[in-house]
Every structure is written in C-alpha cells, then in structure tokens.
Amino acid sequence: MIKVPKEVTKIMKTLGDAGFENYVTGECVIDSMMGEKTYSWDVITKAGFEELTELFPEAKILSTKYSVLREELIDEICNEKGEVIGEEGYIIDISTYRIKNASESSGDDENLFTDNVEEDLARRDFTIDAIAMNPYAGVKPIVDPYEGREDVRKKIIKTVGEASESFRKEPIRMMKAIRYAAQFGFDLHKSVYEAIVANYSLLETVKPEKIRDEFTDIMAAPHAGKGLNMLMNTGLLRVILGEQQFSRLTRREKSDLMALCEGIEKTKQVPERRLGLFYSTIHKKRSMPSIDKLNFDEETHQHLVDAVHDMPKLYFTAQPQDLKKFIYDRSMERYEYLLNLEKAQRLAFDYDSETKIRSKMYMLGEIKKNNEVIFVEDLAVDANDLIEAGICDETNVEKMLVMLTESTHVRPKQNTREELLKVAKKYKRNKIAAWGRGVSWLR
Q1: What digits encode the pLDDT tens for the residues 96-150?
Q2: Cα torsion 186, 189, 194, 200: sign
Q3: Model confidence pLDDT, tens digit, residues 175-187
Q4: CA spacing 20 to 30 A to 258: which of 138, 303, 436, 438?
C-alpha cells in the first residue's frame, strides 16, 4: 500500500465520513509505488458535483460538466529575511466516477457518471493508470482490475484493452504512452509498440496543441532520450515534424538526433531549452515549418526561432562590441536563453566549447561592471537632449539614438553627455561617419 500525505488523507476521510467511497488513482499512484514523492494527487469518488461542492466549498471548480474540483494547498517558502523563495504543498483534484473521457463525450451526455469505480478505471488509457487505492476503504483498499501494479513492477506500458483499438479511439494515447516511458523510464509492451507503428499516421487527426503539449512533456522528462528514440522508431516523429520535413532529413541530421537521444539527459529538464536542442539539430528550412506547425506560445516560439537561426552567430561572437550588438539586436532575456542553450549543447553533444562560453560570460561581466552601453536607455543622453540641442527633431531622433548606441558599443568611453552630443552633431553633418559608426578601425 502506498503512503498518502495527510493533506490528501483529510480529503479522503471527509468523503468517507460523508458516506462516499473514494480512491486515489493515476500518476500519483505510479509515482508513490516507485518511491517518488509527488505533489499532484487525483481523488475519484461516488460523490456527485453537488455533494462535492458542499463538502469542499472553498475548492476551485475545474469542470461542472465533468464534476471536477481542485484543492490547492500551497504554502510559501521564505528565507531567513522573510523573502519568498519558493512554494511547497499539494494540488489535489477531486472528481466523480465517470465512464467516458472528455474526448469521447458529447454535449448531451446522459450516462456520463457511474457508481462503480471499476467502470471508471475501464476508461483509462493504460493499466498502470487504472489502479485505485485507499488505505481507509475497508474491504476494497486496492482496486486493480487490469493488473497495473504488476506492470509497474515490470516497468512496462500496456493499454487497457486491445492496443490498436485504443489508439484508433484516441490517437493521442500513442503520445501519452511514450510520455509515460520518458517520465518513468518504462518500456512499451510489444503490443503497444506494434500498434503505434501501425497507427502513427492517425496522430494527424489530433489538434496540434495536444501533440505539442505531449511532445514538450516528453522532451522535459527524466528519460527524454528514451522517449525521443521511441518517437523516431515508431514513426510518430514523422507527424510531429511533418511528413515532408521528416522525409528530407539528411544523414547528418539523423545522426545528430541519435546523438541527442544519448546526451539529452545530461542537461537540465527545462522544456524550452531541450526543445531548442531538438530543433537546432535540424536545418532551418525544415525546422521552422515544424515549429510553426505546433503553435507554441509566443515566448517559446521566439526562443526556438532564435535557437535555429542565431546559435551559429552566438558561437562566433568573440569581441565585446560584437556581444553588445548581439544582445542589443535581441534582448538580454533572449541572449541568456541562447547562452544556456549553448551550455546544454556542450553537455548533450560533448562539444569543446567551454572556453567560448566562459569568455562570453566574462565579457558580459566586464561590460556590466564598467556600466558600458548595451541598450538605448543606457546612453548618457535621451531624445529630449538631442531635440533641445537642435540636433534632431521628433521625426529622426529615434534613428540618431540607435546610431549613438551602435557607436558606443565600439567606443564605450564616449558615453558622456558632452561627447555624445558631439558625436550626434558629427553624424548629422557627415553621412560617411554615420555609416561607419559601428566599425572598429585597425591601425
């Protein structure tokens, strides 16, 4: 029997005392059986929506239709100074037994719920997901109709029911199977592997956002290399990348992807960083359509575009003025993402790039220590100064500020109000001087 935290136990006892059978189920049970601490728990029960809202009036309502509530028992962690440095606690979802998944149900469901826990478990994707436990349930402390506990012990992933039928019913289950493999380090049962190989093209019918979320979780998982290798071998990567892009992968790109399978687990489990590792192994002509296909959020999309387009540029950025220009053209946040990606590439692919990375870190440290200009707002003058001096008007002042910034990247000592006004006057008179503002001339 697994150990249930007192916060979860309190909810289960509240349900039990009110006469409602209840169990914990899902990934929290798998984690607990494997000795891992989990902070997200799922409690299923006979209690209906009205009873749940009466018993837990402070809980957040996640779904009225599917009768799902959430208790967030989160506390802030503070340091000795009283500053918040993190959070700890549990997220507990409480739902009524039901016989249909959200993807199977229609708007006019009459028989969505059930009083039988085994009927609820029958709709689950995998046997390891179809285990229900309650140390306080009396005669049925464990409900395991598909021998999921044995599959957890064997570290094997099997479907509830025939695999091909399960995947035809819900194609996203193929991605979920590999996510579980990547998350827990399990293997696919032969029937599951063969069914994915036979049905991988059905994933084309799934919304890109669902594929994106599963793919992101696979890449961020503890056993991401195993998951990525499975995606390649089963054919699912053809759908993730797009058939046209996948079919045009070069021998070098396939080799790099195999190397990533071997090395990705050496890197931190940061989703955007690991996705950057993946897409940067593929030429931009193929990776960009693949990135666009999955509809990433704006920030993640920008990071992945930078990974594909700008990593080679960053690798050869070796002078302070070049580094300042690189950061200026993007942002500090985008630069830091790329630098961390370069560090991850060194670990994943065993690149000999530590010296270059340390050099960039040292250069930026010196730039900050000396208060050198990177952005327009770092200049000792602003738009008002240039307008009041009669050098610019409102139509061209922004352009002049950009020119002064680029000039000061090369000549950091000129960042005084007096000197910058002189430079601005020179650029106004002399277009050749303005053209050469970012050039460091050799003597």
Answers
A1: 999 976 555 445 555 789 999 999 999 999 999 999 999 886 668 999 999 999 9
A2: negative
A3: 999 999 999 999 9
A4: 303
Q: Is 25 exposed, middle or buried (0-12, 13-18, 19+ CB in 10 A)?
A: buried
Domain ranges of the chain: 1-154, 376-435
* C-alpha distance from residue 271 to each of 224, 237, 264, 346 (Å): 11, 17, 12, 17
| Secondary element (H or E) of residue 324 | helix 320-329
* Alpha-carbon distances, residue 430 vs 362, 402, 424, 435, 437 (angstroms): 36, 16, 10, 9, 11
> 77 has which bridge partners?
86
For residue 367, the one-letter residue type is: I
With a CB cutoff of 8 Å and minimum separation 6, the contacts of 226 are 181, 182, 185, 261
Average pLDDT rounded to a whole number, residues 277-285: 97
In this predicted structure, the answer to whether residue 284 has a pLDDT above a threshold of 50 is: yes
Question: How would CATH label the architecture of 1-154?
Answer: 2-Layer Sandwich (3.30)
Residues 435 and 298: their CA atoms lie apart, in Å, by 34
Residue 272 structure tokens: 């955007």
Asked if 14 and 55 touch (Cβ cutoff 8 Å), the reply is yes
In this structure, how many other beta carbons lie within 10 angstroms of the beta carbon of residue 304? 24
What are the helix (H) ranges across 188-250? 190-199, 208-219, 224-234, 236-241, 243-247
CB distance 112 to 97 below 8 Å:
no
Q: Are 311 and 338 in contact (CB under 8 A)?
A: yes
What is d(CA 325, CA 321) in angstroms, rounded to the nearest whole number?
6
